[in-house]
Amino acid sequence: MAEVRGERDELAVAERVLERVSKQLAVERASAPPTPGQVGGQAVMLIPHRAPGMEEDMLPPDRQRILAAVRQATGPVMARDVGELVGVDVSVRAKREPLRSKLVGPVDRGWMRKLPDGRFTPRP
Question: What is the predicted pLDDT for the residue at 45?
Fold first, then answer.
């Protein structure tokens, strides 16, 4: 029975340490700039989830330009409109689709909204 109590006490200490380290990591992650990840051996920039007080400069430069173009528009915009504002040749479908995927990333992470009709708007 003493052995079980000893193990229970060790487990309680380990749980407190894990909780403390988890909180510390969460604080560090929230304040750290986005870091490149690896996909297919190439570096890619990760898009952080939007959190209160987080500025747009945490986004990669290309996403900052896209978000600025969406904000600049007078209302909801299509991917084609954003492409024209950021200088993408939107006359070719093969150029629009990568742009559309670059719009979806910030939507998934709370930086913009995608309306049911496929248009994009900034989040306040």
Answer: 62
First to last CA, the chain: 59
Diameter of the chain measured on Cα atoms: 76
Q: How many CB atoms lie under 10 A from the CB of residue 103?
A: 24
Q: What is the pLDDT of residue 42?
A: 72
Q: Which pLDDT value is given to residue 43?
A: 66
Cα separation values, 106 from 1, 11, 63, 78, Å? 55, 40, 8, 15
Report how far residue 121's alpha carbon sits from residue 69's, in angstroms, rounded to the nearest whole number: 10
Where in the chain does DSSP place strands (E)?
A: 36-39, 42-45, 112-114, 120-122
Residue 42 β-bridge partners: 39
Q: Is 58 helix (H, G, I), strand (E, B) or coil?
A: helix
